[in-house]
Amino acid sequence: MRKRILMFICGILASLPIVFPKIGFLQWVLLIPFALLCLSEGDSNGKKHFRQEYTCGFLFFFGYYLVCYSWFLSMYPLSVTGMPKIAALGIVLLAWVGIPLFQSLGFALIFPLIRYAFRRGLPKWLLPIFSGALWSIGEWVQNFFWFGLPWVKLALGQVDINELYRSANLFGSYFVTFLIVSVNFYLAVSFKETVKKRKCAMAVTSLIIFLANALYGIIDLHIASEKSYDTVRISAFQGNISTQEKWSSYMLDRSFEIYERLAEEASEAGADYAILPETVIPYVTEDFSDIDSSLRDIAWKNNITLMVGTFGKVGDGTGNIIRVYEPMREGVNVYTKQKPVPFGEYVPMRDLIMTVLPVLGEINMLDRSLIPGEDSTVWQSDDATFGYLICFDSIYDYAARKSVKNGADLLLISTNDSWFGDSAGTRMHSSQAKLRAVENGRSVVRAANTGISSIITPLGEIVALIPVGEEGQITADVPITNDLTLYTRIGNLFVYICIVFKVISFISIKFRNKITVRSS
Questions:
Q1: Under 8 Å between Cβ of 481 and 229
Q2: Number of Cβ within a 10 Å radius of residue 294
Q3: Counting beta carbons within 10 angstroms of the beta carbon of residue 328, is it exposed (0 to 12), middle (13 to 18) or buried (19 or more)?
Q4: Alpha-carbon distance 82 to 88, whole Å?
Q5: Of 208, 218, 417, 513, which has the maximum CB count within 10 A?
Q6: 333 in Cβ contact with 321 (< 8 Å)
Q7: How many Cβ atoms are within 10 Å of 21's Cβ, its own excluded?
């Protein structure tokens, strides 16, 4: 029981840099207690002991994710859905506990697998690499299940220290995860080692990995800062209109007043383009000629191209889209959201959910599920090629990478984070944009309904920002580039290498044990 309690506490400690990235430097040591427990002595053979180890792993990750997803509590009372407060409380608690539960069920395997490799004699110098690879694969797998939700990555804890996550432009954010876990495990192995020379070797190895990563970040930032870029002058609008207000019929005229004023301000600031938040106009604009013409008029009067988050026709259904209005031209749909939000924009396993827990279907804002986009389409203007992400899209690294591979010079994110209020959820979602910028070497312009709106350089530096709860616009000359980072070129090849390494490791462990049994 004591070990299980310790695992739960270790998980909570490991989560803190994710929620508070200002202390991100601690992430390079906060996993040491977890690693030491992985390397503790004791016979753990048999199904009973596997269950005990799995339980320990589950408790660690449950504590870890429970803190990381605590921002779900800020969504109460879900007033925009109109459901009773007691039902809203149940939904919020279900999300807060349910998502960590689902994610911990899979990630819990990390602990018994590391224990298995340790007991079976995997060389101690290789064990940290084994552990880092295993954790990286776990984060990557979360991309492929709707309940996986790749929201929480160890790399998020480094977003306030540019030098320490700069290596994401080499092999992606999973590589940063690998480095963090490996350093922690090398330190843990050094603590457990009894031979002085080996103890020093393990400690020095961890220091070398950390310093090499930091040195690469320093040098790469310096080289990148010396480059000259072409620029495009662009604005991000934040009307500070919440989800509940946006869906109120009386707010449409008010929204137009706010965004027309912001367009005037942006025009005076010299902006040629402006990105508006997600579904800032909550209507299928093709079906409302007056709305469509009003947006076109705003673009024409201010001589600015508006990229508007709205709804649009997608096949036989409706999609969450970005629609472009150039001065003197008809509006055109350029991008459809690829990753609709589960239970917010569609109901997964609808028949089962509506039968077992129909209250979950009430969160969905529309009568039917939105149709997801099929590709990371880009839009080319006279000045640049724009790649788009809408809200949830931005937490999926492959969506941004595909957009850049398709020719995007910069990335625009249209989002609505008003559900989260001024919570860690809003800040964590905003931090994802910094990861996408560094991974692909692209500027990112992010427009949110109520914040955080920001303009981020390819270096991951925020040059302009509108905090949560404020109305306004930010305008800047945004760098554009056609250069591709190594990560953009090769994608998640590093993860595939990790998978191959894991397979080889398990085969070698099995083979070595067979030889040992025969010789004995």
A1: yes
A2: 18
A3: exposed
A4: 9
A5: 417
A6: yes
A7: 22
* Burial bucket for residue 472 (CB in 10 Å: 0-12, 13-18, 19+): middle
Domains of the chain: 2-224+492-519 (no CATH), 230-336+373-480 (3.60.110.10), 339-372 (no CATH)
pLDDT score for 433: 97
Which among 420, 475, 429 is positioned nearest to 450, based on CA atoms?
420
Instruction: Give residues with Cβ within 8 angstroms of 163, minimum separation 6.
Output: 214, 217, 218, 221
Question: The dihedral of CA 449, 451, 455, 458: what is its sign?
Answer: negative
**Length of the chain as a residue count:** 520
Question: Per the structure block, which two tokens stand in for 8?
Answer: 């739960």
SS3 393: helix
User: Can you give the pLDDT at residue 517?
Assistant: 44
Unique residue bearing structure tokens 């269950």? 51
Q: In terms of Cα–Cα distance, which of 487, 429, 484, 421 is closest to 454?
A: 429
Predicted TM-score of the model (pTM) = 0.94
CB-based contact 57:210 (threshold 8 Å): no
Which residues, in sequence order, are CB contacts of 454 under 8 Å at separation 6+? 236, 430, 433, 444, 445, 446, 462, 464, 465, 466, 474
Copy the structure tokens of residue 295: 């947006």
- Cβ burial, residue 421 (10 Å; 0-12/13-18/19+): middle
pLDDT digits (tens, 9 = 90+) for 217-235: 999 999 999 898 999 999 9
Q: What is the per-residue pLDDT across 236-288, written as a single tens digit (0 to 9) for each?
A: 999 999 887 877 777 888 999 999 999 999 999 999 999 999 999 988 988 88
Cα 341 to its chain centre, rounded Å, is: 13
Q: What is the largest CA-CA distance in the chain?
A: 87
Which residue type does 307 have? Answer: M
CA 334 vs. chain centroid, Å, equals 23
Rounded Cα distance between 278 and 291, Å, is 16
Angle (CA) 105-35-131 rounded to 5° is 65
**pLDDT surpasses 60 at 516:** no
Per residue in 103-130, pLDDT tens?
Answer: 999 999 999 999 999 988 889 899 999 9
Residue the block writes with tokens 């028949």: 351
φ, ψ of residue 148 to 5 degrees: the values are -70, -45
Nearest CA to 404 out of 441, 435, 453, 372 is that of 441
Token pair in block for residue 483: 């250069």
Gap between the Cα atoms of 14 and 30, Å rounded: 6
